[in-house]
Specification:
The protein is α/β, with parallel strands linked by helices. It has a single domain, classed as NAD(P)-binding Rossmann-like Domain (Rossmann fold, 3-Layer(aba) Sandwich). Helices cover 47% and strands 15% of the residues. Strands 3-2-1-4-5-6-7 form a seven-stranded parallel β-sheet, with helices on both faces. β5 (126-130), α5 and β6 (168-174) form a beta-alpha-beta unit. α3 runs parallel beside α4 (95-122) and α4 runs parallel beside α5. The protein is globular, with a radius of gyration of 17 Å. The model has no long low-confidence stretch (mean pLDDT 97). Bound molecules: 5-hydroxy-NICOTINAMIDE-ADENINE-DINUCLEOTIDE PHOSPHATE. 5-hydroxy-NICOTINAMIDE-ADENINE-DINUCLEOTIDE PHOSPHATE binds at residues 6-13, 31-33, 53-56, 81-85, 104, 108, 130, 132-134, 174, 176-177, 179-181, 198, 201. 5-hydroxy-NICOTINAMIDE-ADENINE-DINUCLEOTIDE PHOSPHATE is lined by residues 6-13, 31-33, 53-56, 81-85, 104, 108, 130, 132-134, 174, 176-177, 179-181, 198, 201.
Length: 235
């Protein structure tokens, strides 16, 4: 299959790119850190395309989508993975951080969905949205992040309802995963408190495997959501 992955320069996106590529799929990788994408492409070789793209910028996203169709011939699967969490207590949180989370996690995901939708519908394609346990629960110090991930689940559900016979929609909702994700948090006390939880979290490869499972499920059924939690953790 021809698979477009956003946020493919690290963490879950990178692990997913590697796993899907190993499984014989063609991957089109996007992120802002072009040098990281170049390194992944140099290592993996054939069936890998890359582009620099900020999902907040709709012009960038349209160019990414166009390039993906040009180079792969189609987009069978869009993996909306680019996202971030910046944790801080609400009373001292910065408005720029709230805007950044909404702009990337919600508006960025909508930009990519909107631009790729006609191509996906044409192919009876599949959208994988990376949600979170925060799509279902609300935690202290991360209210706006939780709001963005609740929105991701709502967007998935609306797509599922409106395109029942034209698209497959899956939300992947992980708990803590050991990636660079937590390093976006600048509050030193919270970083110190949360970092071990993420360091002891699941591997990005485990989440990549859940994504692979959803993609490779026979087309007469749809995995609409997978929630993956670390063992021993409540969430
Ligand atoms: O984090 P990280 P994860 N435009 O920091 C990209 C969700 N999640 O893999 O642009 C385009 O390693 C960034 O690339 P770059 C989480 O909410 C995680 O853990 O080069 N891309 C990088 O490739 C997110 O949706 C956990 O900086 C942008 C990628 O996003 C997804 O998993 C738990 C961008 C982030 O990779 C992947 O996060 C959970 C932009 N404007 C959900 N901004 C967890 N790790 O515990 C960022 O429930 N990126």
């Amino acid at each position: 299959m021809n698979i477009l992955i956003t946020g493919a320069s690290s963490g879950i996106g990178e692990a997913t790119a590697r796993l899907l590529h190993k499984g014989g799929h063609t991957v089109f990788l996007s992120a802002r850190s072009f040098n990281k994408l170049e390194a992944i492409k140099a290592e993996l070789g054939d069936r890998v395309h890359i582009i620099q793209c900020d999902v907040k910028d709709y012009e960038d996203v349209k160019a990414m989508t166009h390039a993906a169709v040009q180079s792969m011939g189609s987009i069978d699967v869009l993996i909306n993975n680019a996202g971030l969490g910046i944790f801080d207590p609400l009373p001292i949180a910065k408005i720029e951080d709230w805007h950044e989370m909404v702009d990337v996690n919600v508006k960025g995901l909508l930009n990519c969905t909107h631009a790729a939708l006609p191509h996906l519908v044409e192919k009876k394609g599949h959208i994988i949205n990376i949600g979170s346990v925060a799509s279902h629960h609300v935690f202290a110090n991360s209210g706006v992040y939780c709001a963005t991930k609740h929105a991701v689940l709502a967007i998935s559900e609306s797509l599922r309802i409106e395109f029942p016979d034209k698209l497959h929609i899956t939300t992947i909702s992980p708990g803590s995963v050991n990636t660079a994700f937590i390093d976006q948090t600048k509050n030193d006390n919270l970083l110190k408190e949360y970092k071990p939880n993420f360091a002891n979290g699941m591997s990005a490869e485990l989440i990549a495997d859940a994504i692979r499972y959803a993609i490779e499920t026979p087309s007469n059924s749809v995995i609409s959501e997978i929630i993956v939690r670390p063992s021993k953790a409540l969430y």
